Fold:
Amino acid sequence: MQRRKLRNPLALAVLATLWQKPMHPYEIAQTLRRQGKDSSTKINYGSLYTVVQSLQKHGFVEVTDVERQGNRPERTVYGITAAGRQEATEWMSDLVAYPAKEYPIFETALSLLGVLHPDDVVTLLEERLESLVVQAAGGRAALEKLSETLPRLFLVENEYQLHMVEAEAEWVRGFLDEIRAGTLPGIEEWKALHAS
Structure:
């Protein structure tokens, strides 16, 4: 995997959006929002202009036009360059091919679970499970609605997110069952840790 000049996922989202056609930054933001990319990429719309300038500095995008409509301020339209297409292709290839170690905060919490009493963990995981079930239902409904107007290719990240939420809910459900039944190896020691 290659070390990138830019590592902000928003830069990749901008390159992918400009691949569709040249746009000004406000239109890029609208397109990302309309295509639901704000649910899969952390998009700080305030830093979008900075990201576009950085992409331009590295030669990945270039000014293709300056629009002016009536009394409105000028809008600079950017297009992706050949170097930008190559960067986006290589970056995407790396992301799709090589699993990266990510550090979700829930994993951190699980690694330190012994701090909490098992009874408290049951209560908290029941709350989490409830939230996950609601999130999965919302994700399923959103996916159905979006699939009415968008091809599946543009919804695979939504499918993936839904699958991950459902998988987490299934795991939490099973782990809860083990704690409740007292079959989790080491549960007696865990309870003893909190007995004093």
